[in-house]
Amino acid sequence: MGRIRTIILFIHAPYVTLLPPGNRDFGALGRFAGIRVIKEPGIGIPYAFPSRFRLHTLCPIISSFMRKYIMPGRPIGAVTFDLWDCLFADDTDEPKRAAAGEAPKPIARRTLLHDALHAVAPIERSIVDLAYDTADAAYRKVWHDLHVTLSVRERLEIILEGLKRTLPDAVFEELVRLHEDMELVYSPDPAPGALEALKALHGKYKIAIVSDTIFSPGKNLRKLLAKEGMLPYFDHFAFSDEAGRSKPHPDIFKSVADAFGIGLADIVHIGDRPHNDIGGPHAIGARGVLLTVVKKRDLDGHVPDAICDNYADLPAILASLEA
After folding, report:
1. Contact 5/33 with Cβ under 8 angstroms?
2. Chain segment 243-259, per-residue pLDDT in tens
3. Interior CA angle at 318 toward 315 and 323, to 5°?
4. 185, 214, 243 — which closes off a domain?
């Protein structure tokens, strides 16, 4: 292995990509020194190492070291929270539904659509289920690849168009409402310690929600927050059905920065999904805290600025990021 000639550090996020060979600033350096120069997006961390280094293994370790020992703490302009599996434990409403004799939500939604259609003109349940499954797959594709979450109304319109069927306006509107309100009738449980943490952080930081919406729209998620006493502790809401983008797209984080009049780098986002809640903030120069209170997920190469497995520790974790 050749000797390391140069290490260039512009410290920022833990994502690494090769600089283009013709890069004016670093490409010539790489060719001259016989090394590979790796640069991260945004402000970036260019590293220069011998070309035979196993960089995909080393860079997350190096980034973690940089953040812990070299990068200075900086003030937090806003703290943003994901909602699902962060403030609320997703699908903890299912045991409540079962106890009340209700079907699981995926089945209940398909039943609602089938009953509405069948009341107008007969249709086999298997056809409705297939159409619904196809629409769900399309939703996930658009969500993950284009970072857009279709509304319930849009999803049902797509299904009806595919089936070459229509519903009376009043019936369709009621169908949309029943879909959107399902998690208000039987609500998921709040995450342990979430309310207490919000109370502790309130007044010290500007607090916002940055969350994707699946079936429950932002207007109903506000009701869910109000039901559990959390709503008053938030200063802003960026729900994907209202913001027009879902995580990890930069625009949903930018909407928070614009609302508070702060820079993107001043945001600390708290969430449970490394790809969206750590990768998303890091890509725009913000920081990300991985929350494992409800679920522990594989990091998939992402390096969080901190990990919180107990909400009681969150105030101290945020304070450490400013130190």
Report:
1. yes
2. 999 999 999 999 999 99
3. 120
4. 185
